Recover the amino acids of this structure.
């Protein structure tokens, strides 16, 4: 990074690991130093709730507001009807308007926990259906389509990658980048929005919006992208063996959310503390320097801080207390049967969850364990198991893992001393 930013927002996000690319870092820095800037990130409501994969950019918006700026959360009520082709090999399933509205309500609830929408200077929640649904096709093409060339559009990764992999790209999806570019133009007109932020896979779409705003309105606007975050073993953030880690409290309990963070791999503790909590960086440095069993204390702090933001302080404290009672104190965990695993139990892919249930005495045979999983009665750390072929790697056993068959039969699995 040749330019060293002076604005508080840019310094914070650079130090904490949010910053990947910026269209004009020096220009954006100057704009932020002159006063409050308005920025947006768009979210298509294709799922029933935001999940941990969205949390990276939600925290970016939170820091944007905490440093004196105004964030816009753009709900894709219009663009969800098409689906963003970025990073996808298949066309998204088209949702009904009723389902989109239901998903959008869930998204709103989650964002209200991370951002302050009160007052005249508070965050804004907008819906691009407000302007996209009323567009006339021919007038839109005449007014804005002439600013896009097919030659240029074919060079963007969201299109080029799909075609290189010989996967079909519908004309419906091909239009998506025009609509996203138009969103930026509309938000600049309606709210004075000067910055679009998003994951690095959105770079091409963001560039389109900047160029359209400049050509049509002569606006000076900016783009900023974040790295696509993965775990230390290269997996996409937000997915686990048990499914998505939802941010809506109705879809995932505070305890399960706490356990997700507690099971973080050692190498991810530092990076995750930087982006998913608001702990001071000097404290983060001390925590990530811990070694051996002490790193587990850092994981508990990560779990506590992340769960407090998503579920509230009381729910986070209760989740931590439950985990302590189950796994460490002389509560239910002390009386649970325990199996100890050593190196011979792990193949290249890990240890089979089916064999874990058999060894723990929760199933009499592999066949019974598979039936238990199929019927929804098997749980790991209180999260349901749906995959009979699931393998757990050694990193999952940094602490004891709770196995449950139904509501009353439990066991622990841990690495041998």
């Amino acid at each position: 990074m040749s330019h060293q930013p002076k604005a508080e927002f840019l310094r914070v996000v650079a130090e904490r690991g949010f910053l990947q690319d910026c269209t004009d870092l020096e220009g954006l820095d100057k704009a932020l130093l002159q006063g409050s800037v308005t920025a947006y990130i768009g979210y298509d409501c294709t799922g029933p709730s935001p999940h941990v994969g969205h949390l990276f950019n939600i925290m970016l918006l939170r820091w944007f507001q905490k440093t004196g700026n105004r964030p816009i959360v753009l709900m894709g009520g219009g663009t969800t009807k098409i689906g963003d082709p970025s990073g996808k090999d298949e066309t998204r399933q088209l949702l009904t308007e009723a389902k989109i509205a239901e998903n959008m309500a869930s998204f709103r609830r989650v964002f209200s926990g991370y951002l302050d929408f009160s007052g005249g200077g508070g965050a804004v929640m907008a819906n691009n259906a407000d302007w996209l649904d009323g567009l006339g096709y021919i007038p839109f093409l005449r007014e804005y389509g002439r600013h896009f060339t097919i030659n240029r559009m074919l060079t963007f990764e969201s299109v080029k990658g799909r075609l290189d992999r010989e996967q079909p790209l519908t004309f419906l999806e091909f239009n998506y980048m025009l609509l996203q570019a138009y969103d930026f133009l509309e938000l600049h007109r309606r709210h004075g929005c000067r910055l679009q932020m998003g994951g690095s896979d959105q770079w091409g779409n963001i560039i389109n919006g900047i160029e359209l705003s400049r050509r049509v309105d002569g606006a000076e606007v900016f783009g900023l992208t974040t790295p696509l975050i993965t775990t230390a073993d290269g997996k996409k953030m937000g997915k686990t063996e048990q499914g998505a880690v939802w941010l809506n409290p109705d879809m995932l309990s505070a305890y399960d959310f706490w356990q997700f963070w507690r099971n973080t791999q050692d190498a991810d503790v530092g990076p995750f503390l930087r982006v998913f909590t608001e702990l001071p960086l000097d404290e983060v440095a001390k925590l990530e320097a811990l070694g051996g069993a002490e790193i587990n204390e850092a994981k508990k702090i990560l779990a506590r801080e992340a769960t407090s933001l998503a579920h509230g302080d009381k729910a986070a404290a209760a989740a931590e207390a439950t985990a302590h009672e189950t796994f460490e104190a002389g509560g239910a965990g002390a009386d649970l049967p325990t199996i100890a695993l050593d190196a011979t139990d792990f193949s290249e892919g890990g240890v089979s969850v089916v064999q874990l249930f058999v060894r723990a005495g929760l199933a009499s045979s592999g066949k019974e364990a598979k039936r238990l999983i199929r019927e929804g009665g098997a749980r790991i750390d209180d999260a349901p198991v749906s995959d009979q072929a699931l393998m757990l790697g050694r990193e999952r056993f940094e602490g004891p893992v709770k196995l449950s068959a139904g509501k009353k039969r439990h066991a622990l699995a841990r690495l041998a001393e």
Observations:
- The chain has a mean pLDDT of 89.
- The two ends are 46 Å apart (CA to CA).
